[in-house]
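Many introductory courses stop at the sequence. We go one step further.
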Amino acid sequence: MSEVQILSLSGNRLSDTIPECVGNCSKLRQLFLDDNNLVGVLPESLNIENLVFLNVSNNDLNGSIPLGSRNCKNLIVLLLSHNNFSGETPPGLGNCSSLAILGLFENRFSGKIPPELGKVKSLVFLLLQANQLEGRIPAELGLLEELSSLDLSENRLSGKIPPELGKCESLKILSLYKNQLEGKIPDELGMLSDLRYLKLSFNNLSGEIPHIVA
């Protein structure tokens, strides 16, 4: 199978671990293993730096993202949602210069959101909801001019909503509910002319409702 470029096994009842031999597919560009019953970790042999599309969502996988110092400049879509992945979100994701969709939601990722994600100018969907992320929302996310959907809800994020998010001129969905955010709602969110969905409920926000929101 060394010549295989696309491997799609989605929506089956596959179980056990992802075999190390997947790493032998040196020309593999797209890997779809979503909606199965897979367990264990992502194999270290996986040539993630060569992949364009990786979807292993809706399984029972665990461990961390085996990114290390590898430069995944080809990766456009990374979907790991609905698993049991844990550990910190790797700062190395900031080197995935082509990444458009990052879906890590409904896992057990902890620690802070890496500010390095602000370097990924191609990001359109950043979906990190329903994890155990803590600390402040990085102001660097305001550099993501192509970002259409930002969902950080159902985490343990604290501090203020960074006004820099008002610079995400393509943002249509902003969901920050069920965190521990405080302070006022930034007036700068009024700069988001394309915003269609804003959910900030169940935080510790205070002050007046800005005219731009009301």
